[in-house]
Amino acid sequence: MRAEGTVEGVRRANLSRVLRLVHEAGPLSRAALTDATGLNRSTVGALVGDLAAAGLVHESAPDLQRRVGRPSPNVSASPRVVAIAINPEVDALTVAAVALDRSVLVRERIEVEALVSTHRVARMVAECVDRWREGPLSECDVVAAGVAVPGLVRAEDGLVRRAPHLDWTDAPLRDQIADATGLPTAIDNDATLGALAESLYGAARDVRDLVYVNGGASGIGGGLVIGGHLVRGAGGYAGELGQNRPGIANPADRRSQAQGTVEDEVSRARLLSVTRLLSADEPTLEAAIRASSSVEVDAEVDRQRRILSTALANAVNVLNPSVIVLGGFLATLLDQDPAGLVEAVQEQTMGRNADELEIRAAALGPDRLLVGAAEIAFEPLLVDPLRADMVSAAAPWSPGGSAA
For the HTH marR-type domain, which residue ranges apply (predicted)? Predict the structure, then answer.
């Protein structure tokens, strides 16, 4: 008999449903969990008890002012169960600790002056984790790691086939980080994880057909959600929108002598150059563009918006999404004139494809890739909450912030 058909299999599936609900939706009362799962009150109570005993959720007193009748305790995912989220880029390595309740407990951006090897990235991550375990994560259970990589990641084994801006080819980064930290590690393309995070918790929550486009130091990547499903493609490489070659209507708009891809022309590096910044994180670059009165900055922003609009129109013609989400420096380009960018895209699409199209800035800000990385790190635990290799013997969390 298959495990799913056994009593234990059904129990584990129900534990997964309850844990995923409080992880994705936030704190819910037992009554709300009963409504959402269709299970009876006593079964939900038993499941919550099992999850609480494993340290995965905790219960708090009900809000007596908001409910008539018998009060129902609120159930929350534990802030002490933590995944390490990792995003290597050409100019920095960002590492964060993201809790099961989706709070970011600690975040560190380590700037680098030259490209670093995957071995060095793994060592830097391990150093962060070791230091945090002695400090801000001393009372936490670190269960896994997730990596958002700006490059092609092979789905079947997590091999980084090619990250051109980082100069990585066939790099086993997932296994290197797992070896260095001792943590189960998951890995995927950064834009794919941005699409996952924004569709679950951000600007495209509950949107079934969306295109996510990420602009970072390593270029432009894309993620796709079609019919409510994250699309990875046959090998895991779907969504490389930055490698498209859009037509450039005005020859004066062309800057690159290279291949003429989107990311050759729509470039964070070019924005840094015109704002006279050597390096900057996303909020700093955005602030510099907003504060600038330079004609050169305005001209570069307008030029990049024109080329971006053509690339987005091509995606709309092929995929017919209802929403496009722009992250990173692309969100800054959008914010200069949101309605104008939508109009420019609509002018280049066929028929009715973009009549109701919305283009939104990523809502999760600079944490979007880290949230996506944490999500794939937590996935095995969400599927099987009591799996022995991810649940520690730590005492359950108590609201006072220490073991009960």
Answer: 17-63
DSSP 280-296: --HHHHHHHHHH---HH
Four-residue CA torsion sign, 328, 333, 337, 342: negative
Domain that holds residue 136: 81-193+367-383
pTM: 0.88
Q: How many domains does the chain have?
A: 3
Using CA atoms, how far apart are residues 33 and 22, in angstroms rounded to an integer? Answer: 9
Tokens 């007193």, residue located: 61
User: What is the DSSP code (8-state) at residue 397?
Assistant: B
Report pLDDT digits (tens) over 170-192.
Answer: 999 999 999 999 999 999 999 99
The predicted-structure confidence for 267-296, as pLDDT tens digits, reads as follows 999 999 999 998 888 889 999 999 999 999
CB 331 within 8 A of CB 362: yes
Residue 332 is assigned to a structural domain of this protein: yes
Q: How far apart are CA 118 and CA 160, in angstroms?
A: 10
Place of tokens 């975040």: 107
